[in-house]
């Protein structure tokens, strides 16, 4: 059953701010892709730069942890509220505000005199990403229809794949060029020209008005109480997984998160019952495509994002490879992910969830083949560079899962809630990523305490495979429901 509130309908009747030509839509998409590419390159570059940052700033290990987790924390907390604000006040304007915040924070990070300053800048970068990301998804929903939307999400997946591929390599080049003191600063400052260019082009090319006229009852429409409750719930979920060696009190935040989430649901239902504008209209979860697709995405990120962490740890600590060499292992996979995302985006309208299903099957095959390579490397002296081949299967899987699943998940969501609904899906991704990396790496290090890297990687990849298998079950269930709906007699 599709959710369709009375204010605006779905695909066939989605209004745009003004009629847009193919050239206009192409320009909008170019700006969106450039910025998302910039933000993702910024994430992968930082992973390579951490040793240089620690040496130059004399930072503690906990400081380095927050260089990564602080960004993810503010990003996840702000997503849904930012998406709803863009729905009401204008996605284009909020997107450019997010770019501005991210760019300014990149300058602050690049000039950071100490670790505390750097971590504050990373928190601000997370806010910028949280502001711009849901607007990007919402603008694709708003300005692209049908097959064009699938192709747009496919190009988005291509940008994601290229960013994953080029980030570690670009980081290595910048650090080598700038040296241990300047190099890591360049990994942040490289965002600045892209951000400034995107702001200028966005102001020239985005439809007017960038911000919608302020509606009556704006404060109530933004649902500040719902925003605060959900932000606190997400914070309570993420914090224990980002605090290494957290105390019992820290893990006690998880039941608090459950209570806050229950209060948020009650509040949002009350808002709808009183005829007010909730931050997230919970009726979207009656739409099976949205609920199933969001669950597939959360499970996928719960498992698959840990692969590259484990591969980097195994190659560097277990096989003695350099950070640059471990980054090279992922390049074929990332490039194939970019190609597969574009390929799948052009065909998702025809084949639907079947593309996602076969992508998940391919991911399971890649995991099994990678385990075989690691075991054979220990027992038979097989070169670990065979991982270039097995991880390429995982790259193909990523392209076949993420972009098509986004298209299918959001296809029946009304435009009024495009930003906040996309942000709900992205929040599931962020929570899945944080929880998955924390739990799977903890299991790997527990095995390392009593065994070697081949056994630890096998355990880690097996856990990831179980999570992906759960995502596959949900995707197959969704496909069967879609088939029954298509075959059901009208009336």
Automatic annotation (TrEMBL):
Pfam families: MFS_1 (PF07690). It is found in: Membrane. One of its GO terms (cellular component) is membrane. The chain crosses the membrane at residues 28-53, 65-82, 94-111, 123-140, 152-177, 183-206, 218-242, 248-267, 295-315, 327-344, 356-377, 383-402, 431-450, 456-476. Residues 28-482 form the Major facilitator superfamily (MFS) profile domain. GO terms for molecular function: transmembrane transporter activity. Keywords: Membrane, Transmembrane, Transmembrane helix. It is a multi-pass membrane protein. This is Drug resistance transporter, EmrB/QacA subfamily. It comes from Paracoccus solventivorans. The lineage of its organism: Bacteria, Pseudomonadati, Pseudomonadota, Alphaproteobacteria, Rhodobacterales.
